[in-house]
Here is the input.
Amino acid sequence: MTDEPNLPAGPSFGLTFLYYFCGTALVTSLLAVKTLDIGLDTGLPNLYGTLFGVAGGLLGALVNRSTTLELPISSRKTFRRELDTALAEMGYTEDEAANLDGILVYRRPFIRQLLSGRVYVLLREKHVQISSRAIHMGGIKKRLEASGIR
Here is the structure.
């Protein structure tokens, strides 16, 4: 057993798909019943709910699933400076109050955080792990590559 910290594991593709599928299917079915004035016994609202649920589930899972990026680094201090700059451009600041045993936590202001989640960073000697939503990970990776970190 090791005492090294691990990044929090966010929801995977499957769990995120299920979340968005269920929500979209339910709302679509209820809207179909109310707006089309057909009963649930016909099966059409359920069909519409399933079709829109699959589309909503796929879109939600592609955009909002948790993903992890691993990068080699040569200097922790230099990387930390570049990371702080990249995340500040995206509206993130370090959450000093978060105590996760060596894991840096970045978040946005309260209202924006509700829709964007947090960024978790685990700095090691020769590499770093960054975990966040897939949509934000692309921006982080692009900004770090622009600053010379690959």
Helices lie at 13-36, 44-64, 76-89, 110-116, 134-146. The CA atoms of residues 48 and 104 lie 43 Å apart. The longest helix spans residues 13-36.
